[in-house]
Amino acid sequence: MKNSPLNNSDLENAETIASPVDGLPLPGGSVSIDTLGSDPARSRFRSSSGAIGAAARGLVRLVEGSTPQLSGETRDVLRHRLFIAVSLFFGCFTAFLIRSFFVEDDWRHVDGSAMWYVHLSVTIAMGVLAAALYRFRNCSTTKLRALEFLAFGIPVVFFLTYDIKILSLAANSADAPHLPNIIVPWLLLIFTYALFIPNNWRRAIWIIVPIGLAPILLAKWQNSVCEGFQNCMLNETFSSYHTEQAMVMIFGMTIATVGVHTINTLRREAFEAKQLGQYRLSRRIGSGGMGEVYLAEHQMMKRPCAIKVIRPEKAGDPRTLARFEREVRMTAKLSHWNSVDIFDYGSAEDGTFYYVMEYLPGHNTGELVAMAGALPAARVVYLMDQVCRALSEAHDMDLVHRDLKPANIFCAHRGGEYDVAKLLDFGLAKPTVNSTEDNSELTQEGAITGSPMFMSPEQATGEREADVRSDIYSLGCVMYYLLSGRPPFDYQQSVKVIIAHASEEVTPLSEFVPDVPPELEKIVHHCLEKSPEDRFQTVEELRLALVDLQLDDYWNAEKAAKWWNCNGCPQRKAFDEAALAIA
Questions:
Q1: Which three-class secondary structure state does DSSP give residue 356?
Q2: Domain boundaries, given as residue ranges, for the chain
Q3: Within 10 A of 356 (CB to CB), how many other CB atoms are there?
Q4: If both were cysteines, with which of 315, 348, 390, 454 could 352 make a disulfide (CB 3.0 to 4.6 Å apart)?
Q5: This model's pTM is above 0.85
Q6: pLDDT tens digits, residue range 544-559?
Q7: Which DSSP letter does residue 55 get?
Q8: β-pair partners for 354
Q9: How many helices (H) and strands (E) does the chain have?
């Protein structure tokens, strides 16, 4: 039975310790009956070949925690705050534009309608900028700084034009010549910049000082060219006009600059305060059902690592904590090269639970397919050989993973080799024999656990206990996906996928991949038998069947290195290089 392919948005990624491309969130995680989702994600990786070195240098500063100003995190903050500031400008200009229809002494009634059209143009420009900032959320820092210049430069030009008109009209008024206070909008502009735009004080000065000097210099210029202005200055009432305006603006500039420095210092302190024991967090690189994963650095050893922490809202749930601790204990027992290494485990003073694992540069297999399409048969066999070895150790220790999926199989660069498979996330792992631990409350009888796209029929129905053969079925689903670029059952609704695993036959792999080796197709479909008794009985049997295949092509560490040098996401590569540079 053929199914319509899923849309990209229908597949959800799982937690991973990979470093993300900026603007590419990695949501998802282990799925329970309450949070059924689809896997894996098909996020589109943006390829940007320019300025990789600059990006890497910026990321090194981020990892070291020395300057968060130009970090990816700060870039997101800049875009968000710039959007708020521009939206406020748009609202203010719109409000005064509407006011002009009802107040007779407004610009449309003086000097014709020229100023009104200038005002309208500025309002439209602010609206366009706000829309651009809302729509294009992955702008580079350079583009954001250019938008920042426009966001504050356009009001500066408007206020200069308006002040020239208003000073000339007021000073030459036939009824009551006077010099109006023109500094209020300039102060608002300065303080808006200081409050909303993340900056260091040195850079802020280059923006704040010109804005602050503009009304002072404008008043001086008007004094030299406008006879009415000169006559007003002879009046004792306005004799100190320049001094008062200048002092207020100077104080405003000083306060704004000190404010920028204070806010930036607080941001840096907050950044450095993100610390768990001997580990300082630098940025979030993934998230899952139980918690979030951060790139971190050991303070003493200066070693990059990944830290998984329980979400604050889940920290009070005893079952979540018990599952978290079980994941740590089970993973820590594993010593195989192809299983992720656990370094540490503990809790912070504020009650945050965390564990520390190795940082893995590279991509998970789901990301590889999303980025480059279906993988060659030889590469799939090369990766599955490693996964089976790691899983075999877990099975020998009576552990069933129960959540095998592309997002939990990582292609890493370790020990100078590429395509080193790493098995992740034992959060749903469960002993297959009785243990002294009481697991009944953690995984209840009949509960559906796992990721719907890759779960076995016995997991889908919950009618029988999942054993090692359940992992073999999930591996079959993973191989099917890696070879074809689509899961065995690609319905859009998770419930339909679960039912399909339990009752429908899988579409032959060769219908989607005509050149798939027949023997490899047999192995994949043998893994996908509905009855556990009809599958491979151990992962070692599966591994031997895979390595005994006679393929026309081959894959090894050298080919993997060549592929990674020519492919992969440039921004991810820059991030990984920067993170590993601190080691």
A1: strand
A2: 72-272, 363-434+443-549
A3: 23
A4: 348
A5: no
A6: 999 999 988 889 889 9
A7: H
A8: 309, 346
A9: 18, 11
